[in-house]
Specification:
The chain is an alpha+beta fold. Helices cover about 30% and strands about 20% of the residues. The chain has a six-stranded antiparallel sheet. Strands 1-2 form a two-stranded antiparallel ribbon.
Length: about 250
């Protein structure tokens, strides 16, 4: 190789080296966006304490104004014959406990809206409310007392008379012969019925022939019809002002 060829080769190599270095110096740099960075390392979220919801306590009225009982008795009378109770734009369930709750709401007394135990019916819920905040009485009665009954129907479908607290109503009036008039829901409407604990096996008074007991359970193949007095379970009473008690179980007059 002569000197001229060698010089030419060196010149070409020098040009290639300069071109290569120039290309490297202009290569764009790689940048990582803040968005990608946040995805890889997300910022911690603030920890929010859970909100605890407290159930409203059940409120019970200890006394009722002297005007309220008379107004409530009038309201009870207006319910008779109705398919269900209504008050202040509110409709109540068309059953015995719904009717009873409507009457006691007019007095300003809550009958307890806490959830019932498993298998507990509403008559039992009301009964337990009386046990907690009032009095269960077997002998004395007053207008606006609750009145409880057992075995008005075969709740557990076993054919036996072992169904406790199946019905509830409200006492409206006590007659001189100790017959108790009460308002309750039965069948398809709100009705009045009578009960006299002195004559549990009779539907009519032996002398006056006036009605003293209505049947609350019809006769079936296994059981005869049962009167209100036969199914009676107790009176329930709260502290309603100016209530006048009457004995319900005195011996019959001779």
């Amino acid at each position: 190789m002569n000197f001229k060829s060698y010089s030419k080769m060196c010149f070409v190599c020098a040009l290639l080296l300069v071109f290569f270095l120039s290309a490297c110096s202009h290569r764009p740099s790689i940048r990582y966006s803040s968005r990608i960075s946040r995805r890889i390392q997300p910022s911690p979220r603030p920890i929010v304490a859970p909100v605890q919801i407290q159930a409203k306590p059940v409120a019970y009225a200890s006394t009722v104004s002297t005007e309220a009982p008379e107004n409530t008795l009038q309201y009870m009378a207006s319910l008779v014959g109705q398919p269900y109770a209504k008050r202040d734009g509110k409709s109540y369930r068309n059953d015995c406990s719904g009717t009873t709750r409507a009457i006691y709401d007019s007095l300003g007394i809550s009958l307890g809206y806490a959830p019932s135990n498993a298998g507990e019916n509403d008559a039992t819920t009301i009964y337990n409310s009386v046990l907690k905040n009032g009095l269960i009485d077997q002998k004395n009665v007053a207008p606006l007392d609750l009145i409880f009954f057992d075995n008005t129907y075969d709740r557990n479908n076993n054919g036996k008379l072992d169904d406790k607290l199946t019905h509830v109503g409200v006492v409206e009036k006590i007659f001189p012969d100790k017959t108790i008039l009460f308002v309750h829901y039965m069948g398809k409407s709100i009705i009045r019925s009578r009960m006299n604990l002195l004559f549990p096996d009779l539907q009519h008074h032996p002398q006056s022939r006036e009605r003293v007991n209505h049947l609350l359970r019809r006769a079936s193949r296994k059981h005869k019809g049962l009167s209100a007095a036969k199914l009676f379970a107790g009176f329930g009473r709260f502290n309603i002002k100016d209530q006048v008690l009457s004995p319900a179980t005195d011996a019959p007059e001779s």
